[in-house]
Amino acid sequence: MKKIFFTLLILSSLTGFSQSSLNDYNMAVIPAKYEFQKVDNEYRINTTIKSFLKQKGFEAYLSSDQIPEGFMDYNCNKLFVNVVEESSMFFTKIQVEFKDCKNKVLFATDLAESRSKDRTKSYNEALLLALKSFDKAKYKYSGKTYFDEEAQEKLKVRDVENVTLQVVKTEKNESFIRVVNQMNQKELILYKTSKPNIYLSSYNGRNGIVFSKENVWVFEYIDGDKTTSEPLEIKL
């Protein structure tokens, strides 16, 4: 019984260490436009979040910004910021979510409310109140680096199979598009960039880019010391 107890204790400890935490990140990407917005940065929501995160020590960019070279080479070392919005004629409610690359919410602010009749003022009041509750996260960057994980992702060697149209399921949100082949569970994740026909991509353990070439979507990645391209049978 003692051996079983200690084994379970060790396993639970390892599981706990493997879980990601808000404190493990100091980089963040904010969409230039959320679903409830009609235009980029409507009501200055997106740039307000960006400024707030920079004040907290994050390297933060809007998806429409001129992003430094290499910043998006690997996505699991940064946060993706989502905004949950509820509004009516009488109030505006906003909550800010901080997600990892697997769409897991690591922290969410309070759902803050404003009843101002002025739409711009209402959104800004609710957003600032929501961001004020970020202090509850007690954020302090742990100094974690992702060099080993990024290297392992690039070195993985797996057979890549084209995604066929008949058996794919496509899920979309503000940050990325996920295409799953339900026959063999192959997963293609496309991270949006400022260019509509270019995506940063993760596919079967390989990082690369997906782009449209002569009306065909192509996955391009580094394999050893050479660049490899493969066509994808998908519709976006």
Describe the 3D structure:
The protein folds into two domains: 118 residues, Double Stranded RNA Binding Domain, CATH 3.30.160.670; 75 residues, no CATH class. The protein is 22% helix and 33% strand. The N terminus is likely disordered.
What is the topology?
Layout (H helix, E strand, L loop, with lengths): L1 H17 L8 E4 L14 H11 L3 E4 L16 E9 L4 E8 L5 E4 L3 E3 L4 H14 L14 H9 L12 E5 L3 E6 L4 E7 L5 E6 L2 E8 L2 E8 L2 E7 L4
Parallel strand pairs: 1-2, 1-3
Antiparallel strand pairs: 3-4, 4-5, 4-6, 7-8, 8-9, 9-10, 10-11, 11-12, 12-13
Structure characteristics:
13 strands, single chain, disordered N terminus, 236 residues, alpha+beta, Double Stranded RNA Binding Domain, six-stranded mixed β-sheet, globular
